[in-house]
Amino acid sequence: MAKALDLARSVKGATGDNPAVGAVVYKKGAILGMGRTHMPGQDHAEAEALWRAGKSARGASLAVTLEPCCIHGRTSPCTHAIIASGIKRVVAALKDPNPLIHGRGLLALARAGVRIECGLGESEAMVINEDFFKYITTGIPFVVVKAGLTLNGLIAADSRHSRWITSEEARQLVHELRARTNAVLVGLSTVLEDNPKLTVRHVEGRNPIRVVLSHGPDIPKTSYLAKTASDIRTIVVTPRALRTRCSNAIQYIDLGARTSRLPIRQVLRRLGVAGIKSVLVEGGSEIYTSFLEQRCIDMFQLFFAPRVLSSGIPFVHGQRTLSVRESLNLRDVTIRQLQNGFMVTARPER
């Protein structure tokens, strides 16, 4: 199962609408075939592992990080291939939370005489696909907030100059995050001040969808996002419909809100309807604050640099708080030392 989990991690962000899954066919401690999920319409992990194992799969065991599918989609059910191969035992890390499959794949295998075990490596498998699982059960994208900060919690100087607070290593990790995420989201102020690309560079990977939250105005026609919208899917979300639009290539989402304050939960629901399963929030301060105050964050990935600014733009600047009890408590906190700074990963307590 450890090898299957490694295979699943290796394709995170490269499987399109599919979850990242790894599978290993083995017998008496020897690996006979390995597989991992590919893009939609291509082989699932189990099918690839069985193909590589060939006839030697008969009488062997299959370790897989997610319950095999049992429905006809863009590919045939993996349960059919497993039964036809003569596999005698399947060890699945966890049941597929997809309501169309949940438990049915394992039941189909058991009815065909395949011995079933479930739960080995469950927590690791859950983390690998936590974004997919949230989306498939709620229709809401998984939200990661990413920020580069000084040690005293500032994201830019008073002039809004922020390049570069963090190190080159930290910026490369950010590009890896983008490559694993469906969409990158920023506020209009970030577009106006930084004219960002929001693309994947420095590492291999596809560009995410770019999403801009605006309190009303459109993004400038001269912005990089507008100029490249025909090549990279770009979405602008506004409270009300715009009278004029800067580009026909941009997808506009009108929330029909009565105020200029963007209801983040509604934004996420509309992005989910648009097929976006995960969102990387990259600022600025007002956007961070909105997501925090409206409790719409699933994970923080914060990059701290060994710098201190005497004043500047804070990470968040919400309403006045009167007690520490009003704070958002975090769990599963990990700290990774970088060459020049450190990265904190944490999840809000629910």
From TrEMBL:
Alphabetical keyword list: Hydrolase, Metal-binding, Multifunctional enzyme, NADP, Oxidoreductase, Riboflavin biosynthesis, Zinc
Annotated positions binding substrate: S162, R178, L198, R201, E282
Annotated Pfam families: dCMP_cyt_deam_1, RibD_C
Keyword Ubl conjugation appears in the UniProt entry: no
InterPro entries: APOBEC/CMP_deaminase_Zn-bd, CMP_dCMP_dom, Cytidine_deaminase-like, DHFR-like_dom_sf, Eubact_RibD, RibDG_C, Riboflavin_Biosynth_HTPR
Known EC number: 3.5.4.26, 1.1.1.193
GO biological process: riboflavin biosynthetic process
GO molecular function, one term: zinc ion binding
Pathway membership: Cofactor biosynthesis; riboflavin biosynthesis; 5-amino-6-(D-ribitylamino)uracil from GTP: step 3/4; Cofactor biosynthesis; riboflavin biosynthesis; 5-amino-6-(D-ribitylamino)uracil from GTP: step 2/4
PROSITE patterns: CYT_DCMP_DEAMINASES_1, CYT_DCMP_DEAMINASES_2
SUPFAM superfamilies associated with the record: Cytidine deaminase-like, Dihydrofolate reductase-like
Active site residues according to the UniProt entry: E46 (proton donor)
Superkingdom as given in the UniProt entry: Bacteria
Residue numbers binding NADP(+): G148, W164, T190, D194, G284, S285, E286, I287, Y288, T289, S290
Protein purpose: Converts 2,5-diamino-6-(ribosylamino)-4(3h)-pyrimidinone 5'-phosphate into 5-amino-6-(ribosylamino)-2,4(1h,3h)-pyrimidinedione 5'-phosphate.
Family: In the C-terminal section; belongs to the HTP reductase family.
Protein name: Riboflavin biosynthesis protein RibD
Species the sequence originates in: Candidatus Raymondbacteria bacterium RIFOXYD12_FULL_49_13
